[in-house]
Design brief:
Blueprint lengths: L56 H6 L12 H5 L14 H8 L7 H4 L2 H21 L3 H12 L16 E4 L11 E4 L4 E4 L16 H8 L15 E2 L2 E2 L6 H35 L1
Antiparallel strand pairs: 1-2, 2-3, 4-5
Length: 280
């Protein structure tokens, strides 16, 4: 089996397995330079659990530090070839990566030091991330992410006036190696940068549609109150004719709603005038 040179895989961050140092600094995706690799840190004694998982590769990978956002994808979902349609061209060592993901054994220290293992591992991370993006919008995946959402695993909106509204992970693109994961607030409808702990997770592992599908599925979790705009003051007095972004947005929405209501009223009135003539 021939392996490609490091940094030449099809997309994704240059993912180093836990326990390996950053030997390829500066390689990877040129469009999204990284400050550090997702797994470049050398584990210490506190990371013993990273090498003692009783489950397979999926359970081990999901339990790594910084992977709290990720759901543990069911093996049955991965074994269904229908769910993997179109992913083969996006990963270099597809068959080997898929075999690694479905492995019943978690990697040990000797695996993490093996050069060939590291090559396949990078593609396995990318492939698992792409599968993960599809899984979390499935009925079972949405339930798993709902549990995380209710437990505040994804955190809260950093905007003070959103009153600690829960956020959801989102990507800026569905393609690998375009941008890192962000969090989306359904109240102010804005995206924010995540904490550095999660900053090197590829945004394509969640995709651009997940938070919106989630809120359509669990509509009762949509915030009922509109976001409160910040009112700037100088010595306690409001600034004359100053309108923030949210205030302008709310006014525009009210104007559009009133315009639609007027159009609908005119249309209904015209139909009511024509109705007697049609009856005659």
């Amino acid at each position: 089996l021939k392996f490609s040179a490091p940094g030449q895989q099809a997309g994704g961050w240059l993912c180093e397995p836990p326990g390996t140092r950053d030997k390829h600094q500066g390689e990877g995706c040129p469009r999204a330079p990284r400050s550090r690799d997702m797994f470049s840190r050398v584990p210490d004694d506190s990371d013993a659990s990273e090498f003692s998982s009783d489950g397979g590769w999926i359970a081990w990978f999901s339990s790594l530090k910084g992977h709290e956002f990720l759901a543990e994808v069911d093996e049955e979902y991965i074994r269904d070839s229908f769910n993997l349609y179109g992913l083969r061209p996006r990963v270099t060592h597809y068959d080997n990566a898929l075999e690694m993901i479905l492995s019943d054994d978690a990697p040990d220290h000797s695996d993490l030091e093996d050069r060939h293992f590291q090559e396949v591992y990078r593609d396995a991370v990318n492939l698992y991330g792409l599968i993960h993006a599809r899984y979390i919008v499935s009925p079972r995946g949405l339930q798993v992410m709902r549990e995380k959402y209710m437990k505040s695993v994804f955190g809260f909106c950093p905007r003070v006036l959103c009153d600690r509204q829960h956020v959801l992970p989102v990507g800026v693109s569905d393609d690998l190696c375009v941008g890192r994961v962000k969090v989306y607030c359904a109240k102010c409808e804005l995206q924010y940068t995540v904490r550095s702990k999660y900053a090197d997770i590829d945004g394509s592992f969640f995709g651009t549609s997940f938070p919106h599908i989630y809120m359509l599925t669990y509509s009762t979790q949509l915030p009922l109150d509109p976001p409160r705009p910040f009112v700037p003051r100088i010595f306690g007095f409001k600034i004359h004719r100053h309108k923030g972004v949210i205030t302008r947005k709310r006014e525009k929405e009210r104007e559009e709603e009133a315009s639609r209501a007027r159009v609908q009223a005119v249309a209904e009135g015209a139909f009511a005038d024509r109705a007697p003539r049609l009856m005659v």
